[in-house]
Amino acid sequence: MEIEVAKNSGYCFGVKRALDLAEKTIKKYQNKNVRIYTLGEIIHNKGVVKELEKSGIKAVKDENEIEEGSVFIVRSHGMSPEILKRIKLRGVRVVDATCPYVKKAQSKAKMLAKRGYNIVIIGNNKHPEVLGVKAQIESKNVTVIENQKELSKLKTYAKIGVLIQTTQTMENVKEIISGLLEKGKEILIENTICNTTEKRQNTVKELAKKVDVMLIIGGKNSANTTHLAELAGKYNINTYQIESYREIKKELFRQKMKIGISSGASTPQKDIKNVRNYLESLNF
Q1: Which CATH class is domain 13-99?
Q2: What are the start and end residues of each CATH 3.40.50.11270 domain in the chain?
Q3: For residues 22 and 188, what is the distance between their CA atoms, to the nearest angstrom?
Q4: Cα 68 to the chain's mean position, in Å?
Q5: Residues ≥6 apart with Cβ < 8 Å to 195
């Protein structure tokens, strides 16, 4: 059995930055009897979130669960400025761990709205990053398109400004944009896909073409991991998305196989190493 781990696997810059800020916050307040919160998971990885909870960071679902005088960490996906404002009014200290690429998308949204564009966001309408970008602007002229089929719900406008969820695949974006050309007289496209995401996708695409089985490691609730698995699946039907080595089925493998491994942006190197070690232990 031959195993190849894709370049750019493991944490992306934004996730690493968020976790570094989380660790610094834990150290700063660990002996001061101060509670630390996030609204939702700081990153989309259950194992990492559990470890952070053991260290003192509690992920809550409702802003009202955040106590007065506590510390609040803005998750890597960003959030609504109105919700953040309400949290601050309760005397909560804020640590902003929003990914810089997400910040860029938020800034572009404000700019497009100010210039009178009807905004189209290519992404998942329920994803926290997309919700956070939408919340940056007061305009109701915002439409979220996840795939080419959803273009039918978009009206025709004189001016359309396009933003892209940072973890989208370029293939999906190109398909949607080709259909958008019929929807507006003036279309301004802001490519807000994360550079690391794009590089990771290109690497996975090439690796999937030359291996027998492709494993994509990452949380089932991670958009970028799911997109990677979908992309790899277009080039290799034997593609599997797993959260840990425990999900690997031995019967999928045989002697002289070539296995490709990649991961989502929220997957720690130890998870990748565990998968590799398990495969090597099969002795094929």
Answers
A1: alpha beta
A2: 13-99
A3: 36
A4: 30
A5: 101
Structure tokens at 38: 């996030």
Q: In what order do the strands lie in the sheet with 213-217?
A: 2-5, 258-263, 213-217, 239-242
- Taking the complete model, does pTM exceed 0.70, yes or no? yes
- Distance, in Å, from the CA atom of 18 to the CA atom of 79, rounded to the nearest integer, reads 14
Class (C level, CATH) for 101-193: alpha beta
Residue pair 214/236 in contact by the 8 Å Cβ criterion? yes
Is 243 known to be catalytic?
no
Closest by CA to 197, choosing from 65, 105, 90, 68, is 105
pLDDT tens digits along 156-188 = 999 999 999 999 999 999 999 999 988 999 999
Beta strands in 32-173 (DSSP E): 36-39, 57-60, 71-74, 93-96, 118-122, 142-145, 157-164
Task: Give me 98's structure tokens.
Answer: 């929003």
> What single-letter amino acid sits at 174?
K
Of 23, 53, 68, 129, catalytic: 129
DSSP state of 191: -
Q: What pLDDT digit, counting tens, does each position of 3-39 carry?
A: 999 998 999 999 999 999 999 999 999 888 999 999 9
CATH 3.40.1010.20 intervals, the chain: 2-10+196-281, 101-193
Q: The tokens of 210 are what?
A: 């030359």
CATH number for the domain whose boundaries are 2-10+196-281? 3.40.1010.20
